Amino acid sequence: MYIGRIKVREPIAAMKGPVLDNKYKRKVQLTGSSTYIVSLPKDWIRRLGIKQGCEVLINIMPDNSLKITPLISREKGEEPPRIKVIRVKDVYGDALVIEMISAYLAGYDQIILEYPVELEHKILEQVEKVQAKTVGLEVLEEEPGRLKLYMIVDNTSLSIHESLEKMMSIAVLMIDNALKFLKEGKEVLLQSIVRKDDTVDKLFLLIMRQLNQVLSGRIGLDKTGLKTYPEIPYFVIVAKSIERIADHAVLLSKYITRIDKDMDIYEDIYELLDAAKQAYMISIRGFRLHDTRLALKALNKIVEAEERLENFRQTLLPSDGVTSIYPVLESINRIIAYSRDIVEATYNLVTYRELIGYAEQKERT
Question: What pTM value is reported for the model?
Fold first, then answer.
């Protein structure tokens, strides 16, 4: 991986000069009557290929430290594309998919696959799986034993906030479809859940790619909709929680068809899932508005849903067909648990913003 033109594998500590704990010590000097200047490390300048007259971007961070980023224009060809070459000697199921997605998340612009021609059919199947889970990764060059995927979408075309909003809404629709199936029995509703999960996965991976690009200095924080770097873990927790909730909606769609509709507990399952949905909806609204009052309301709903679920479990008898019901109850339980994670992330984010002095305008409910 590269940051600008710096190889990440080469530690900063390897640079020569007056370094203290991987940090350069410099004196502030005054030039003219009002301009303060600080010299930049020569090795850093050389590694990035910065010349006299080049511009750098200086960001004032929340802790009053400065972040200096060279403005290297890719359009001018000053920064080469990041290329990941994967040489395939054999196909190990999902291993190739995982490796390709890892390259996508890391921020590579191109992924080149080199493989024996006789494996082409299997390779193309794996590529299609990756394309189904990613945004903007397309095969634009192909020849026997070699193909090249390009990232053709601007990393900032969809902000992290926008992607997260879409994930939140889609997950609600997925749970809604499961609830409608319990009422109407139309299996087309369950098929829609699986399709929606693919979209959630794409948005989640796009968010992870964008955050990696931010942390590597390739995308400015201002392009993401976030305010500070320490906020990133909270957004990761929420995005992952929603992605897992969507996964459990898919599991629900598989297992609820095994429950006999004539059973007395069918309506109970509906009510438990609806309680989980309500807890989730309030939790994401609290995070969206950064409102701890809504987060507290969501927490009360979560506790209530947990208690109802546990009480229901206690009433089940072996004759109730527990084997078919248990996976459904477990997925409902996980939806509730991930909603709790979203509530905790909301409290953590709000508390952090209070610490650094951000006064958020909160929408009243």
Answer: 0.79
